[in-house]
Amino acid sequence: MIFNAIFDSGTTAFMILSTSLVMLMTPGLAFFYGGLAGKRNILGIMMQTFVSLGITTIMWITFGYSLCFSGGEGGIIGNFDLAFLNNVGFDQAFDIEGGKNYPTFIFVAYQMMFAIITPALITGAFVNRITFKSYLIFLVAWQVFVYYPFVHMIWGCGLLAQWGVLDFAGGIVVHATAGFAALASVIYVGKRRDTASPPNSIPLVAIGTGLLWFGWYGFNAGSELAVDEITTLAFLNTDVAASFAAITWLIVEWVREGKPKFVGLLTGAVAGLATITPAAGFVPLWAAMVIGIAAGLVCYLAVQLKNRLGWDDALDVWGVHGMGGVLGTILLGVFAVQAVGGQAGLIDGDATFFGKQVVAVVIAAIYAFVFTYLMLFVINFITKVKVSEQDEDLGLDESLHGEKAYDDGAL
């Protein structure tokens, strides 16, 4: 880190653009979830997503960034040395390698956008069953005790990074932790009273998917934190994996149900995006194709398994994000190539790295599941977690927020 640096304008502009793209993913997620929710719970789920933009930003600037990116190497969590961005000047350079400097403030903002969307992913699992007060406590506590430690351990030179675990853009840090937290939430709160509630607006789901797909280029390509050949590889791998996963899901569902489903196509794309995330800058293009096909198959089967087991994960957060993150992290251990990202995987001769990836993602999934379940149990002593039957029947839009997404005659 240096002060009064001469910043590289191209790299600085790229990081500003990537940060903006990742920010756009949170409204995209709100539209995606809002379209899938029943018509009486559109605003409730969108509110839970949008509120993270405000609360997480406050947390990140005051102490979150510090807990993630300060402290010594090899630890589980950072310290408060950088709280309120203390000693982080607006003219401080983040990356001085090769003279491609850009302000540290951009890195702070970029990572903040990841922190904003990660807990918001979980909300799709318990749509129309959680009180807003309990969700706000959940939003704060989950970041402090789940998200921040894994950011520090993997991206903040902490324990898992020192052990050799890799996660290019969030297979472990974002998707595995959020997905298995979602599963714990579903098991804790139980089923909806009306499990047959259909999506209220598939076009809104399509808009959300488009914004997520678009934003994911910043999510993955931006995670190189520079502009080079790996940036372009991650960009193309992202699109390829999403496309192969979308078509795979479409075909499988078409064969099984006799009709091509638009929601299936869109869900498959998101599964591919989640699955390529940890591997985007570490695997060659052909591997992204294989990862996309695997994502379409495995995530579709995970959703079917969820249905058979009776888990009421309303918007398939576990099947798409949880299993996508786990699958992508493991396949990174299989397909990583030394000549591409500097780390060999199983097929390139390093079985040890593969083993580390498997162990790390299993630990993350188990920890996120157990802690989330226990956290909800504790929150319930502070304020009731699950809404009343009357509020659930009326819909959270009106019962909790006193608003409606549409005029009475619109739907």
CATH architecture: Orthogonal Bundle
H/E series: EHHEHHHHHHHHHHHHH
Share in helix:
55-70%
- Sheet-strand content, in percent, reads under 5%
Number of strands: 2
Helix-strand blueprint:
Blueprint: E1 2-3, H1 9-36, H2 42-69, E2 92-93, H3 104-122, H4 132-155, H5 159-163, H6 171-189, H7 202-221, H8 229-257, H9 262-276, H10 285-309, H11 317-335, H12 338-341, H13 351-382, H14 389-394, H15 396-401
Antiparallel strand pairs: 1-2
Can you describe this structure?
The protein is 68% helix and 1% strand. It has 411 residues and is an all-alpha fold. The protein has one domain: Ammonium transporter fold, CATH 1.10.3430.10. A two-stranded antiparallel sheet has the order 1-2.
Any descriptors?
single chain; 411 residues; mainly alpha; Ammonium transporter fold; two-stranded antiparallel ribbon; 2 strands
Describe the structure concisely:
With 411 residues, the protein is mainly α. It contains 15 helices and 2 strands. The longest helix has 32 residues, at 351-382.
